[in-house]
Amino acid sequence: MSNTIAFIGLGHMGKPMALNLLKAGHSLRVFDLNADAMKELQEAGAQVGESAVQIAKEAQMVFTMLPAGRHVRQVYEGENGLLQAVAPGTVLVDCSTIDAQTSQDLAAKAAKLGLIMLDAPVSGGTGGAIAGTLTFMVGGEDQALDKARPYLEAMGKNIFHAGKAGAGQVAKICNNMLLGILMAGTAEALALGVAHGLDPAVLSTIMARSSGRNWATELYNPWPGVMPDVPASRDYQGGFATGLMLKDLGLAADAAVSQNSATPLGELARNLFALHAAQGQNAGLDFSSILNLYRQKS
Length: 298
Ligand code: NAD
Description:
The protein has 298 residues and is of the alpha/beta class. It has helices at residues 14-23, 36-44, 52-57, 69-77, 82-85, 100-112, 125-131, 142-155, 167-195, 200-208, 215-219, 242-258, 264-277, 291-294, and strands spanning 4-8, 27-31, 47-48, 61-64, 91-94, 116-119, 122-123, 134-139, 156-163. It contains 14 helices and 9 strands. Strands 3-2-1-4-5-6 form a 6-stranded parallel beta sheet, sandwiched between helices. α8 (142-155) links the parallel β8 and β9 (156-163). The radius of gyration is 20 Å and the shape is globular. The termini are far apart.
Protein backbone atom coordinates (compact mmCIF):
# COMPACT_ATOMS: atom_id res chain seq x y z
CA MET A 1 0.00 0.00 0.00
CA SER A 2 1.42 3.38 -0.92
CA ASN A 3 1.92 5.90 1.85
CA THR A 4 -0.17 8.99 2.34
CA ILE A 5 1.96 12.09 2.64
CA ALA A 6 1.06 15.29 4.48
CA PHE A 7 2.75 18.53 3.45
CA ILE A 8 2.45 21.62 5.67
CA GLY A 9 3.73 25.05 4.56
CA LEU A 10 3.17 25.81 0.87
CA GLY A 11 5.18 28.99 0.34
CA HIS A 12 7.86 29.77 -2.22
CA MET A 13 9.56 26.45 -1.53
CA GLY A 14 6.88 24.18 -0.11
CA LYS A 15 4.46 24.59 -3.01
CA PRO A 16 6.81 23.39 -5.77
CA MET A 17 8.19 20.65 -3.50
CA ALA A 18 4.67 19.36 -2.84
CA LEU A 19 3.86 19.56 -6.56
CA ASN A 20 6.85 17.32 -7.28
CA LEU A 21 5.60 14.74 -4.77
CA LEU A 22 2.28 14.74 -6.62
CA LYS A 23 4.02 14.41 -9.98
CA ALA A 24 5.88 11.37 -8.65
CA GLY A 25 2.48 9.77 -8.05
CA HIS A 26 2.22 10.09 -4.26
CA SER A 27 -1.08 10.56 -2.51
CA LEU A 28 -0.80 14.01 -0.94
CA ARG A 29 -2.70 16.06 1.65
CA VAL A 30 -1.72 19.66 2.13
CA PHE A 31 -2.26 22.51 4.56
CA ASP A 32 -1.16 26.14 4.81
CA LEU A 33 -2.52 28.97 6.96
CA ASN A 34 -2.89 30.91 3.72
CA ALA A 35 -5.81 29.36 1.80
CA ASP A 36 -4.61 30.84 -1.52
CA ALA A 37 -1.38 28.86 -1.23
CA MET A 38 -3.38 25.60 -1.38
CA LYS A 39 -5.36 26.34 -4.57
CA GLU A 40 -2.73 25.29 -7.09
CA LEU A 41 -2.10 22.05 -5.25
CA GLN A 42 -5.77 21.26 -5.08
CA GLU A 43 -6.03 21.81 -8.84
CA ALA A 44 -3.08 19.48 -9.30
CA GLY A 45 -4.79 16.69 -7.35
CA ALA A 46 -3.85 17.14 -3.69
CA GLN A 47 -6.46 16.94 -0.94
CA VAL A 48 -6.70 20.16 1.04
CA GLY A 49 -7.02 19.82 4.83
CA GLU A 50 -8.53 22.03 7.50
CA SER A 51 -5.55 21.95 9.83
CA ALA A 52 -2.03 20.58 10.08
CA VAL A 53 -3.12 17.99 12.61
CA GLN A 54 -6.06 16.78 10.53
CA ILE A 55 -3.88 15.90 7.53
CA ALA A 56 -0.94 14.61 9.59
CA LYS A 57 -3.10 12.16 11.56
CA GLU A 58 -3.97 10.34 8.35
CA ALA A 59 -0.43 10.28 6.96
CA GLN A 60 2.51 7.92 7.34
CA MET A 61 4.98 10.65 6.43
CA VAL A 62 4.74 14.37 7.21
CA PHE A 63 6.77 17.15 5.61
CA THR A 64 6.91 20.69 6.99
CA MET A 65 8.36 23.70 5.16
CA LEU A 66 7.84 26.69 7.45
CA PRO A 67 9.56 30.07 7.78
CA ALA A 68 11.40 29.91 11.14
CA GLY A 69 11.91 28.01 14.39
CA ARG A 70 8.92 29.55 16.16
CA HIS A 71 6.55 28.37 13.41
CA VAL A 72 8.08 24.89 13.53
CA ARG A 73 7.71 24.72 17.34
CA GLN A 74 4.13 25.95 17.06
CA VAL A 75 3.19 23.33 14.47
CA TYR A 76 4.91 20.42 16.24
CA GLU A 77 4.45 21.14 19.93
CA GLY A 78 2.05 24.10 20.25
CA GLU A 79 -1.57 23.70 21.24
CA ASN A 80 -2.82 20.83 19.04
CA GLY A 81 0.76 20.16 17.95
CA LEU A 82 1.62 17.31 15.59
CA LEU A 83 3.78 15.43 18.11
CA GLN A 84 0.82 14.65 20.35
CA ALA A 85 -1.56 14.00 17.48
CA VAL A 86 0.10 11.69 14.95
CA ALA A 87 0.22 7.89 15.16
CA PRO A 88 3.34 6.12 16.51
CA GLY A 89 5.71 5.20 13.70
CA THR A 90 4.91 8.32 11.68
CA VAL A 91 7.99 9.81 10.02
CA LEU A 92 8.25 13.59 10.46
CA VAL A 93 10.55 15.50 8.12
CA ASP A 94 11.11 19.19 8.79
CA CYS A 95 12.66 20.89 5.75
CA SER A 96 12.60 24.43 7.22
CA THR A 97 15.87 26.19 8.03
CA ILE A 98 15.89 26.65 11.81
CA ASP A 99 18.35 26.46 14.73
CA ALA A 100 19.90 23.06 15.34
CA GLN A 101 18.89 23.07 19.03
CA THR A 102 15.18 23.23 18.16
CA SER A 103 15.61 20.35 15.70
CA GLN A 104 17.42 18.31 18.38
CA ASP A 105 14.75 19.07 21.02
CA LEU A 106 11.91 18.12 18.70
CA ALA A 107 13.66 14.92 17.55
CA ALA A 108 14.17 13.87 21.18
CA LYS A 109 10.53 14.56 22.06
CA ALA A 110 9.38 12.72 18.94
CA ALA A 111 11.50 9.68 19.80
CA LYS A 112 9.93 9.50 23.29
CA LEU A 113 6.51 9.33 21.64
CA GLY A 114 7.53 6.55 19.25
CA LEU A 115 7.85 8.91 16.29
CA ILE A 116 10.75 9.36 13.92
CA MET A 117 11.94 12.85 13.10
CA LEU A 118 14.50 14.17 10.65
CA ASP A 119 15.77 17.69 10.02
CA ALA A 120 16.18 18.01 6.25
CA PRO A 121 16.78 21.64 5.26
CA VAL A 122 17.36 22.30 1.59
CA SER A 123 19.52 24.29 -0.76
CA GLY A 124 18.88 25.16 -4.39
CA GLY A 125 16.37 27.99 -4.15
CA THR A 126 12.96 28.18 -5.76
CA GLY A 127 14.50 27.14 -9.10
CA GLY A 128 15.76 23.90 -7.54
CA ALA A 129 12.44 23.34 -5.80
CA ILE A 130 10.55 23.68 -9.10
CA ALA A 131 13.00 21.51 -11.04
CA GLY A 132 13.14 18.86 -8.30
CA THR A 133 16.90 19.26 -8.01
CA LEU A 134 17.20 20.43 -4.39
CA THR A 135 20.05 19.40 -2.13
CA PHE A 136 18.82 17.94 1.17
CA MET A 137 21.06 18.08 4.25
CA VAL A 138 19.68 15.51 6.62
CA GLY A 139 20.16 15.09 10.36
CA GLY A 140 18.83 12.00 12.15
CA GLU A 141 19.01 8.20 12.23
CA ASP A 142 19.95 6.04 9.19
CA GLN A 143 16.72 4.02 9.25
CA ALA A 144 14.62 7.16 9.26
CA LEU A 145 16.50 8.51 6.26
CA ASP A 146 16.02 5.18 4.46
CA LYS A 147 12.25 5.60 4.88
CA ALA A 148 12.23 9.23 3.75
CA ARG A 149 14.70 8.84 0.87
CA PRO A 150 12.27 7.84 -1.90
CA TYR A 151 10.20 10.95 -1.16
CA LEU A 152 13.21 13.22 -0.88
CA GLU A 153 14.35 11.88 -4.26
CA ALA A 154 11.08 13.10 -5.79
CA MET A 155 12.04 16.64 -4.71
CA GLY A 156 15.82 16.68 -4.84
CA LYS A 157 18.91 15.45 -6.64
CA ASN A 158 21.46 15.34 -3.81
CA ILE A 159 20.58 13.82 -0.46
CA PHE A 160 23.34 14.10 2.13
CA HIS A 161 23.30 12.52 5.56
CA ALA A 162 25.10 15.17 7.63
CA GLY A 163 24.92 13.29 10.96
CA LYS A 164 22.62 13.01 13.97
CA ALA A 165 19.59 15.19 14.75
CA GLY A 166 20.40 18.85 14.14
CA ALA A 167 23.38 18.12 11.88
CA GLY A 168 21.38 18.97 8.76
CA GLN A 169 20.67 22.40 10.22
CA VAL A 170 24.32 23.02 11.06
CA ALA A 171 25.33 22.15 7.48
CA LYS A 172 22.60 24.41 6.10
CA ILE A 173 23.53 27.36 8.32
CA CYS A 174 27.20 27.09 7.29
CA ASN A 175 26.13 26.98 3.63
CA ASN A 176 23.83 29.98 3.94
CA MET A 177 26.36 32.04 5.84
CA LEU A 178 28.66 31.54 2.84
CA LEU A 179 25.78 32.34 0.46
CA GLY A 180 25.07 35.64 2.24
CA ILE A 181 28.75 36.56 2.09
CA LEU A 182 29.12 35.67 -1.59
CA MET A 183 25.92 37.47 -2.64
CA ALA A 184 26.98 40.66 -0.83
CA GLY A 185 30.48 40.33 -2.33
CA THR A 186 29.15 39.77 -5.84
CA ALA A 187 26.84 42.81 -5.55
CA GLU A 188 29.77 44.89 -4.26
CA ALA A 189 32.05 43.86 -7.15
CA LEU A 190 29.36 44.47 -9.80
CA ALA A 191 28.49 47.89 -8.38
CA LEU A 192 32.17 48.88 -8.36
CA GLY A 193 32.60 47.85 -12.00
CA VAL A 194 29.42 49.59 -13.13
CA ALA A 195 30.43 52.78 -11.25
CA HIS A 196 33.51 52.72 -13.53
CA GLY A 197 31.35 52.44 -16.62
CA LEU A 198 31.42 48.67 -17.23
CA ASP A 199 28.39 46.88 -18.58
CA PRO A 200 27.10 44.63 -15.76
CA ALA A 201 26.45 41.77 -18.21
CA VAL A 202 30.00 41.94 -19.61
CA LEU A 203 31.53 42.13 -16.13
CA SER A 204 29.34 39.23 -14.98
CA THR A 205 30.47 37.08 -17.91
CA ILE A 206 34.11 37.91 -17.19
CA MET A 207 33.79 37.05 -13.49
CA ALA A 208 31.78 33.90 -14.24
CA ARG A 209 34.72 32.63 -16.34
CA SER A 210 37.40 33.85 -13.90
CA SER A 211 38.40 33.16 -10.33
CA GLY A 212 35.56 35.28 -8.94
CA ARG A 213 33.08 32.70 -10.26
CA ASN A 214 30.40 31.65 -7.75
CA TRP A 215 26.75 30.58 -7.49
CA ALA A 216 25.53 34.18 -7.95
CA THR A 217 27.60 34.84 -11.09
CA GLU A 218 26.64 31.45 -12.55
CA LEU A 219 22.98 31.09 -11.64
CA TYR A 220 21.54 33.98 -9.63
CA ASN A 221 22.97 37.27 -10.80
CA PRO A 222 21.84 40.17 -8.58
CA TRP A 223 21.94 42.81 -11.35
CA PRO A 224 18.54 43.33 -13.07
CA GLY A 225 18.43 42.13 -16.65
CA VAL A 226 21.73 40.25 -16.70
CA MET A 227 20.02 36.86 -16.41
CA PRO A 228 16.45 35.99 -17.38
CA ASP A 229 14.33 34.03 -14.89
CA VAL A 230 16.06 35.21 -11.72
CA PRO A 231 14.44 37.44 -9.07
CA ALA A 232 16.72 40.39 -9.99
CA SER A 233 15.05 40.49 -13.42
CA ARG A 234 11.53 40.61 -11.97
CA ASP A 235 11.93 43.43 -9.44
CA TYR A 236 13.31 40.97 -6.87
CA GLN A 237 9.92 39.26 -6.51
CA GLY A 238 9.81 35.59 -5.46
CA GLY A 239 12.99 33.72 -4.63
CA PHE A 240 14.54 33.77 -1.16
CA ALA A 241 13.38 36.69 0.97
CA THR A 242 15.93 39.12 2.45
CA GLY A 243 14.18 38.59 5.81
CA LEU A 244 14.84 34.83 5.60
CA MET A 245 18.51 35.39 4.72
CA LEU A 246 18.77 37.74 7.71
CA LYS A 247 17.22 34.99 9.87
CA ASP A 248 19.80 32.45 8.61
CA LEU A 249 22.73 34.81 9.23
CA GLY A 250 21.38 35.33 12.75
CA LEU A 251 21.27 31.53 13.20
CA ALA A 252 24.90 31.38 12.02
CA ALA A 253 25.87 34.11 14.50
CA ASP A 254 24.14 32.24 17.36
CA ALA A 255 25.83 29.01 16.30
CA ALA A 256 29.21 30.79 16.28
CA VAL A 257 28.67 32.18 19.78
CA SER A 258 27.72 28.76 21.15
CA GLN A 259 31.10 27.30 20.04
CA ASN A 260 33.24 30.44 20.50
CA SER A 261 33.87 30.37 16.74
CA ALA A 262 35.07 33.44 14.85
CA THR A 263 32.82 34.36 11.88
CA PRO A 264 33.76 37.97 11.08
CA LEU A 265 32.56 37.89 7.45
CA GLY A 266 29.33 36.17 8.46
CA GLU A 267 28.71 38.90 11.03
CA LEU A 268 29.43 41.63 8.50
CA ALA A 269 27.04 40.03 6.02
CA ARG A 270 24.40 39.80 8.78
CA ASN A 271 24.79 43.51 9.46
CA LEU A 272 24.57 44.39 5.75
CA PHE A 273 21.38 42.36 5.33
CA ALA A 274 19.96 43.88 8.56
CA LEU A 275 20.58 47.42 7.22
CA HIS A 276 19.03 46.47 3.89
CA ALA A 277 16.01 44.68 5.43
CA ALA A 278 15.23 47.71 7.59
CA GLN A 279 14.60 49.93 4.55
CA GLY A 280 11.10 50.06 3.06
CA GLN A 281 9.76 46.72 1.81
CA ASN A 282 13.19 45.15 1.31
CA ALA A 283 12.66 42.34 3.84
CA GLY A 284 10.11 40.80 1.49
CA LEU A 285 12.26 41.16 -1.65
CA ASP A 286 14.65 38.46 -2.82
CA PHE A 287 17.98 38.62 -0.99
CA SER A 288 19.88 39.47 -4.20
CA SER A 289 18.30 42.95 -3.80
CA ILE A 290 21.22 43.60 -1.42
CA LEU A 291 22.64 45.06 -4.66
CA ASN A 292 20.57 48.19 -3.98
CA LEU A 293 22.69 48.88 -0.92
CA TYR A 294 25.68 49.36 -3.24
CA ARG A 295 24.18 50.53 -6.48
CA GLN A 296 24.67 54.19 -7.36
CA LYS A 297 21.45 55.50 -8.79
CA SER A 298 21.84 58.28 -11.38
P1 NAD B 1 7.53 31.30 2.68
O1 NAD B 1 7.34 32.37 3.70
O2 NAD B 1 7.33 31.58 1.23
O3 NAD B 1 6.55 30.06 3.02
C1 NAD B 1 6.23 29.63 4.32
C2 NAD B 1 4.79 29.14 4.30
O4 NAD B 1 4.48 28.60 5.59
C3 NAD B 1 3.76 30.25 4.03
O5 NAD B 1 2.92 29.87 2.95
C4 NAD B 1 3.00 30.36 5.35
O6 NAD B 1 1.64 30.71 5.17
C5 NAD B 1 3.15 28.96 5.90
N1 NAD B 1 2.95 28.87 7.34
C6 NAD B 1 3.48 29.63 8.33
N2 NAD B 1 3.07 29.21 9.54
C7 NAD B 1 2.26 28.13 9.31
C8 NAD B 1 1.52 27.27 10.15
N3 NAD B 1 1.53 27.40 11.48
N4 NAD B 1 0.80 26.28 9.57
C9 NAD B 1 0.77 26.13 8.22
N5 NAD B 1 1.45 26.93 7.37
C10 NAD B 1 2.18 27.92 7.91
O7 NAD B 1 8.97 30.70 2.95
P2 NAD B 1 9.89 29.85 1.93
O8 NAD B 1 10.69 30.78 1.09
O9 NAD B 1 9.06 28.78 1.28
O10 NAD B 1 10.91 29.21 2.97
C11 NAD B 1 10.53 28.16 3.86
C12 NAD B 1 11.78 27.68 4.59
O11 NAD B 1 12.73 27.21 3.63
C13 NAD B 1 12.48 28.77 5.42
O12 NAD B 1 12.95 28.21 6.62
C14 NAD B 1 13.62 29.21 4.50
O13 NAD B 1 14.71 29.73 5.25
C15 NAD B 1 13.95 27.90 3.81
N6 NAD B 1 14.56 28.03 2.47
C16 NAD B 1 14.05 28.93 1.56
C17 NAD B 1 14.66 29.01 0.30
C18 NAD B 1 14.14 29.98 -0.75
O14 NAD B 1 14.84 30.17 -1.77
N7 NAD B 1 12.96 30.58 -0.57
C19 NAD B 1 15.75 28.20 -0.02
C20 NAD B 1 16.19 27.28 0.90
C21 NAD B 1 15.59 27.20 2.16
